[in-house]
From TrEMBL:
The chain crosses the membrane at residues 39-57, 63-84. The keyword Ion transport applies. Residues 109-127 have a biased composition (Basic and acidic residues). Residues 15-35, 100-127 are annotated as: Disordered. This is ATP synthase protein I. GO terms for biological process: proton transmembrane transport. Pfam families: ATPase_gene1 (PF09527). The lineage of its organism: Bacteria, Pseudomonadati, Pseudomonadota, Alphaproteobacteria, Rhodobacterales. Keywords: Hydrogen ion transport, Ion transport, Membrane, Transmembrane, Transmembrane helix, Transport. A possible function for this protein is to guide the assembly of the membrane sector of the ATPase enzyme complex. InterPro entries: Atp1_alphaprobac, ATPase_put. GO terms for cellular component: proton-transporting ATP synthase complex. The gene is atpI. Belongs to the bacterial AtpI family. It comes from Ascidiaceihabitans donghaensis.
Length: 127
């Protein structure tokens, strides 16, 4: 008799544990898709950040050495170059993702086409 009571309590405890674990499971993450505007803003921010960092470094060096704004001009140009280079890298990354997605879609379409025509002898005859 005590074994059946103990068995029932263990089963109830296991059910409670399973329910608690299910409640604490994180929701499945959805794949994030960003709009083109978000990507464009990212690139603008990268360009402005490069310019700002270059300007700040140049201004700081000019202040430190007491020179004309030569370092400010040089480092602002370098910041512009770095920002453009970062933008190009981001655009290449986006293009690579898009190409991979399109290739995946083409492969899936090809597989569906092969499955559709594989069992139908009329498609082989051209009818």
């Amino acid at each position: 008799m005590p074994d059946t009571d103990r068995q029932q309590r263990l089963e109830q405890l296991e059910e409670k544990l399973a329910a608690a674990q299910q409640a604490q499971e994180p929701a499945p993450r959805k794949e994030e898709h960003y709009s083109q505007a978000q990507h464009a803003w990212r690139m603008v921010v990268e360009l402005v950040a490069g310019l700002g960092i270059g300007f700040g470094m140049g201004y700081g060096l000019d202040w430190l050495f007491g020179t004309l704004p030569i370092f400010m001009l040089i480092f602002t140009c370098l910041g512009l170059v770095a920002g453009v280079k970062t933008m190009i890298r981001s655009a290449q990354e986006l293009q690579d993702r898009q190409m991979a997605y399109e290739a995946e879609q083409d492969t899936a379409d090809d597989v569906r086409t092969v499955k559709d025509t594989a069992g139908d002898p009329r498609k082989d005859e051209g009818a």
